[in-house]
UniProtKB/TrEMBL annotation:
Residues 21-137 form the Alpha glucuronidase N-terminal domain. The gene is aguA. SUPFAM superfamilies: (Trans)glycosidases, beta-N-acetylhexosaminidase-like domain. One of its GO terms (molecular function) is alpha-glucuronidase activity. Pfam families: Glyco_hydro_67C, Glyco_hydro_67M, Glyco_hydro_67N. It comes from Penicillium olsonii. PANTHER family: ALPHA-GLUCURONIDASE A. One of its GO terms (biological process) is xylan catabolic process. This is Alpha-glucuronidase. Residues 144-464 form the Glycosyl hydrolase family 67 catalytic domain. Residues 1-15 form the signal peptide. The active site is at residues 297, 376, 404.
Length: 836
């Protein structure tokens, strides 16, 4: 990118709350020469205020005003005014200005952007494309990029959707950024301001449809009042070129419509749905289509009537066909009552087993929406083999901007590199190049439909997702949906400049920590393909490796005293590896050729199995968790070097999150390492696991008003024991005489921050207060809180550079609140540069 030297950047701007996302149009100053590059007029070819082309004109006006303080008038339909930006569809342009030459063919939603001639041309194949081109031009301006460009840009695929998992009561399934911007108390909200702002953000990343309600769908959305609400939402999205789609509950004809059945082949059911569809399209004539989760995790589906999934998908497909709608049918169909004692049982097999034999039986407007991996948005999964098993069926890949298994927006995890690994994977279907991106866009098998959908959990929080840094994932999703070959780091840098300005140090730092964040999270949460070792039964957030096994959900690790991993080979295991095309199947079948990052996904091996590094599996576990947690500490240090270079509000917000992550990465590290040490009995060669020389257990302190508490799972408390106050209204005190050599230490305190109260803790050294904090992370962080002492609620706070003398008394007073009994696990006194 060409950044021109004549730009002078303003100092750090006033506090920002994140609401504008990457569309801030933050001021840049530029010299006269720079000004001569700015347009002095805007011409748009549509005067209807609700048209995307009109919206484009307003955006340009706001952008030029915001970024360069340049007040530019919008006029309509006048052709070729020199040094203007001209925005419209190619057809509108032709009508106003006559023939155009030199513009390559544009596909649906595509655009032409030229800054080379006497004016800037932004011409879309349709109005949506013109708006996309406008946002792209504005993105250049906002990054101080005055390169002379002339290019056509076309989408990789027609389906570039987002899925909201918003419930009608206003809650959001897996939502970490506050309540829904769409729903409240069973209805669509009245004030749609936030929806408009969201529409802007989505349009700027070229998203063309949004499914507004949870796939675990509530049929009352189909009531006439709520459909009126949906129509209002669609009216808000339409000027931004975004269509609205709806998730359906398969049993609606019975539960909502009062029929005796929801059999997809029953005539009354077909009629009921067709009537509903007519009502929907009457109010929303450009409704994008339906999204269906059926026969999955307790949701009703066609299996109730022994009908096929194709019967179900086609029921809706035929219904929306006359209106040009499509049906996104989710491949996330599996039995969650599997039996782990059966060596062959494997949830990963489900999608291919359910869908492969139906290939070719789906109507043309059905798209099978497939999660990127065969299980569920884990930190590492192989590509779903279903992508290689449907040849005559359109597909879309399902990604998650929502960081459900990736730290729930409380941990920094930039997910685009993970998505890129999936999209770039070559499935070698029929022994021919078959990138996942080419399969899902429809290119590989010449399907007209295809693309991607991402689960997004924006809420009413001003940061949208609960944390500023997570917005890079939403931005990157749109970019990759449009062009899967975009580079994850370049996308990130565009986002960073747009979000935090042009300071080089800010750019470099955010690039480094974000690009490291997924590998680091993998290191401390679950590596070698064992999945995110989180609590899969409860919040999906903190560590709880035991929860993976001994239940029907099938996210198993099969860890026992000597060995670990799922044997998914054809020769001896669940036969999952055989679902891939020949060459890939052969690679995964053999432990020697399986990439090590997926070793335990495909093979069951001893803890003493040697990796290519020469390390054993168990030692690799120990080391990775230490390395990961260590690297996470560095995120905070690097961020803190940006003080004064980012506005104070966002600086402090991000700092607080990264500070929390440094602590929680240690909780992850110790929990996982303790768990496998306990299970295998194999000591850490580095003698770190279960050996914490700077740690003082809370239960070993002198306790008044505190009592010991056995924590479950045991590995989420040091020594398996914590302390809690004996009453929920009076303070407890834990004190100890320090036996370490006199010196300067960082003091870390591990405690539990439960949902249900805001306990207060105060730390004293010889009665001198040295620190205090409140257990209110349910309000200040983003992840799902826990009501227990466990790996989700375990938290660490740190006080730096405390001067301590041997024999000093350290005292912590904990004041309980509500059901939160001011729990404490341990303190660690860390000499400078030491990580316990
Ligand atoms: O991962 C699981 C989530 C559920 C979700 C489901 C799905 C909407 O834990 O919350 O339900 O996937 O994708 O349908």
């Amino acid at each position: 990118m060409q950044l021109l030297g004549f730009l002078v950047f303003l100092g750090v701007a006033a506090a920002e709350d994140g609401l504008k996302g990457w569309l801030r149009y933050a001021p840049l100053t530029c010299s006269d020469r720079c000004h001569s590059n700015l347009p002095s007029g805007i011409v748009t070819f549509n005067t209807t205020t609700t048209s995307p082309v009109y919206v484009a004109g307003t955006e340009l006006q706001n952008g030029l005003q915001g970024i360069y303080k340049k007040n530019v008038q919008v006029t309509h339909k006048k052709c070729n005014t020199a040094s203007s930006v001209v925005v419209g569809t190619l057809d509108q342009y032709r009508q106003a200005c006559g023939a155009v030459s030199g513009i390559p063919d544009l596909e649906e939603d595509g655009f032409w952007l030229s800054t080379k001639g006497s004016n800037v041309q932004i011409l879309g194949q349709n109005e949506r494309g013109a708006l996309y081109g406008t946002f792209e031009y504005l993105s250049m301006l906002a990054q101080g990029n005055f390169s002379k460009v002339a290019y056509a840009s076309n989408p990789s695929a027609p389906i570039r959707w987002v899925n909201q998992w918003d419930n009608m009561d206003g809650s959001i399934e897996r939502g970490y950024g506050g309540p829904s911007i769409f729903f409240k108390n069973g209805q669509i909200v009245q004030d749609l301001t936030r929806v408009t702002e969201y529409a802007r953000l989505l349009a700027s990343i070229k998203i063309n449809a949004v499914v507004i309600n949870n796939v675990n769908a509530n049929a009352t959305l189909l009531s006439p009042t709520n459909l009126e609400g949906v129509a209002r939402v669609a009216d808000v999205f339409r000027p931004y070129g975004i269509q609205v789609g709806l998730s359906l509950n398969f049993a609606s004809p019975q539960t909502f419509g009062g029929l005796g059945t929801f059999d997809p082949l029953d005539a009354s059911v077909i009629e009921w749905w067709s009537n509903i569809t007519a009502q929907v399209y009457e109010r929303v004539p450009d409704m994008a289509g339906y999204l269906v989760k059926a026969d999955s995790e307790g949701q009703p589906g066609p299996q109730t009537y022994n009908r096929t999934l194709a019967d179900a998908a086609n029921l809706f497909a035929k219904g929306v066909q006359p209106y040009g709608g499509i049906v996104m049918y989710r491949a996330f169909v599996y039995d969650h009552h599997l039996n782990e004692t059966n060596w062959r049982d494997d949830r990963a097999n489900a999608a291919v087993e359910f869908f492969k034999h139906l290939d070719g039986e789906f109507e043309d407007n059905v798209v099978i929406q497939i999660k990127y991996g065969p299980i569920d948005f884990q930190v590492r999964e192989p590509v779903s083999p279903l992508f290689a098993n449907l040849v005559n069926t359109s597909m879309a890949i399902e990604l998650q901007v929502t960081q459900e298994y990736l730290g729930q927006q409380s941990h920094l995890v930039y997910v685009a590199p993970l998505w890129k690994e999936i999209l770039n994977f070559d499935l070698r279907i029929d022994q021919k190049p078959s990138l996942v991106s080419d399969v899902v866009t429809g290119k590989r098998f010449k399907r007209k439909l295809g693309g991607s959908a991402a689960v997004v959990n924006v809420g009413t929080n001003s940061t949208w997702l609960g944390s500023h840094m997570s917005m890079s994932n939403l931005y990157a999703y749109g970019r990759l949906a449009w062009n899967p070959s975009d580079d994850a780091e370049e996308i990130l840098q565009d986002w960073t400049r747009l979000t935090f300005g042009l300071n080089q140090k800010v750019l470099d730092t955010i690039t480094r920590i974000s690009m490291d964040s997924w590998p680091v999270y993998e290191q401390y949460s679950g590596n070698l393909g064992i999945q995110t070792l989180t609590d899969i039964i409860y919040t999906h957030y903190g560590p709880s490796p035991a929860s993976q096994d001994n239940n029907g959900w099938g996210q198993w690790t099969r860890a026992d005293q000597t060995s670990i991993g799922m044997d998914r080979t054809v020769s001896n295991g669940t036969r999952f590896s055989g679902q891939y095309p020949k060459e890939i199947a052969a690679m995964y079948e053999d432990v020697e050729t399986t990439p090590e990052e997926l070793l335990l996904w495909f093979h069951h091996v001893n803890y003493t199995h040697r990796l290519s590094s020469g390390k054993t599996v168990i030692q690799h576990f120990y080391d990775s968790h230490y390395t990961g947690a260590q690297r996470a500490q560095g995120f905070l240090d690097q961020w803190e070097a940006l003080q004064g270079k980012v506005d104070p509000e966002r600086y402090e917000h991000v700092r607080r999150f990264l500070d929390y992550q440094t602590g929680h990465s240690i909780i992850w590290r110790d929990a996982i390492n303790n768990f496998y040490y306990n299970l295998s009995g194999i000591p850490d060669e580095g003698q770190r696991v279960d050996h914490h020389p700077w740690c003082i257990e809370a239960e070993s302190m002198k306790l008044e008003g505190y009592k010991t508490y056995d924590v479950t799972p045991f590995e989420t408390a040091s020594g398996a024991v914590a302390i809690v106050t004996t009453s929920n209204s009076t303070a407890g005190t834990a004190s100890t005489k320090i036996q370490f050599p006199s010196g300067t230490y960082d003091l870390a305190v591990n405690y539990y921050d439960l949902y249900g109260g805001k306990s207060q803790w105060k730390v004293y050294l010889n009665d001198r207060p040295i620190g205090q904090w409140v257990g209110n992370s349910e309000e200040t962080l983003s992840h799902t809180p826990s009501i227990y002492l466990d790996g989700h609620s375990a938290t660490r706070v740190k006080f730096r550079k405390i001067k301590v003398k041997r024999g000093d008394t350290l005292k912590i007073i904990g004041m309980p609140d509500g059901t939160e009994p001011a729990p404490l696990d341990y303190v660690a006194l860390l000499p400078a540069g030491t990580l316990d």
